[in-house]
Structure to design on (220 residues):
């Protein structure tokens, strides 16, 4: 982990925070005295949201609605997953034996989570100025390069079938995980026929993933 700290130019004080930031609940349950990253992730979510919002307020001249859309793109699950993978955070993730064999899409949500928990650990250990610098060093290059992490696939799908006057509906078919950390599986149906399925840590993103798959099928 020292290589990661060196890359970010930080000097950790409390290593237990960082160990917790990478410990999934499945790992914590197998190690009775270990805490999982979930509380840290809750805090990190707010920190990342605020830092990105502050940056957009200072550098963008768009109205509130447009800035909200831009912020959503750079704090969504796909974006957080990309940040984690680019930093190599997945190499530090500690999973229980059962979790190691779950679907990749669920692991994607977990890898996105640890970006937020890691930022929370930095905040608690070294303060807000340091975590702001770290978040901005990671996220702003993507903003400046206008990298797209999120598209409104639902609207695109609606437009694609609108000419045929077909109905589109999203059906929640499964929920997995504890109440505070669910994984949702959604089907999108066009005229009652299943065209796509999406899985994510929020219903909205699962719907978007289902719409994306449906558009890919329609394109083929």
């Amino acid at each position: 982990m020292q290589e990661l700290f060196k890359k970010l130019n930080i000097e950790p004080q409390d290593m237990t925070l960082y160990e917790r930031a990478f410990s999934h609940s499945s790992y914590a349950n197998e190690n009775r005295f270990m805490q999982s990253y979930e509380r840290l992730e809750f805090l990190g979510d707010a920190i990342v949201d605020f830092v990105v919002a502050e940056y957009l307020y200072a550098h963008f001249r768009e109205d509130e609605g447009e800035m909200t859309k831009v912020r959503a793109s750079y704090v969504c699950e796909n974006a957080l997953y990309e940040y984690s993978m680019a930093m190599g955070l997945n190499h530090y993730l500690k999973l229980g034996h059962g979790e190691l064999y779950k679907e990749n899409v669920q692991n994607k949500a977990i890898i996105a989570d640890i970006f937020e928990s890691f930022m929370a650990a930095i905040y608690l250990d070294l303060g807000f100025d340091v975590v702001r610098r770290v978040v901005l060093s990671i996220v702003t290059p993507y903003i400046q390069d206008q990298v797209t992490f999120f598209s409104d696939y639902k609207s695109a799908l609606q437009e694609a079938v609108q000419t045929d006057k077909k109905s589109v509906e999203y059906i929640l078919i499964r929920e997995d995980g504890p109440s505070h950390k669910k994984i949702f599986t959604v089907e999108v149906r066009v005229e009652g026929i299943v065209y796509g399925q999406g899985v994510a840590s929020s219903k909205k993103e699962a719907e978007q993933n289902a719409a994306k798959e449906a558009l890919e099928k329609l394109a083929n």
Summary: Residues 8 and 134 are 7 Å apart (CA to CA). The beta strands are 168-176, 183-190, 193-200. The two ends are 45 Å apart (CA to CA).
